[in-house]
């Protein structure tokens, strides 16, 4: 049975998805308790398989209490049930968090000296590794080679986060936040396939809304929450892509495995997007850049006039980032996707205006949202029509922004060389 058939069987039977949570021996093992809680509270059937070293950090009673199941680390417990084979065979997803350098090496070379490594050899479902280790260990050629091999075999190895490590050390190697690891796993489970169809691709996604300052405390902005852009980044990472997310004034947590670049103004957004696009296979402009900015910014807070009059603010047009990257491609074959938040007016309907914009911007795909009445902004759901320069139109009915993100990536993937 293929991984996809395995997943489809689980869905059709109505049973809870079976997740194996492997925990290897790193200090970040305590964070896996929160990941386990997210899985169990969302209705997953979770079997925790810690290594012996992991139990030095978090004891078996904790794992048993949180999962509602007994915990074993060796292949000698309940031998008649053949756990070293059955656990992997019956899983819909195996996720190892944290995955140490030692565990990654064992998985790469097919070692099976405990229950977790044996489970990894027998699993025929999607496998996700969330590495956590010191920067020097992550950057070592041996670890990089092991990660590349695991990815070549179809495993999803999430890029570790940057931040505080053990002791006073900081750098890349920190375990991503449990909530974000959970979101990646949820994406993988919903797709139900080990196919990482964006592996080896570098994609750039922009998200959020820019701010154009009037003075030190006031700005012109918009209502974009960044939710759709973050969903796009998370979905691309779950499909194996290297993702750069340029986020304008977004307060959401960083998606696991994604490089996040934070900006405020449209000029800053343009600079970072154009820079990242130089090495990108696809650019998705989900951010909402301000169309205009003040000609000048006051150094001091603008005060109210005694006579009650209001100041006059002169505006100048901002650069059109989507038009720039759409008409001046940084790489041959690069796919460019824009977003259009439209309301329609006396000159045309939402789709009429969007088709004109598609041509004017020079992009390959334009995701059209009808935002009449403030729809879409800040909502977890979305609906859209994806217009293509080649004439294809794809209607996406109302659903999660994650679901829309995957439809967009499906359209992008079909246009990548």
Automatic annotation (TrEMBL):
Pathway: Cofactor biosynthesis; coenzyme A biosynthesis; CoA from (R)-pantothenate: step 3/5; Cofactor biosynthesis; coenzyme A biosynthesis; CoA from (R)-pantothenate: step 2/5. Residues 1-202 are annotated as: Phosphopantothenoylcysteine decarboxylase. The keyword Plastid does not apply. Its cofactor is Mg(2+); FMN. Residues 18-187 form the Flavoprotein domain. Pfam families: DFP, Flavoprotein. HAMAP family: CoaBC. This is Coenzyme A biosynthesis bifunctional protein CoaBC. The gene is coaBC.
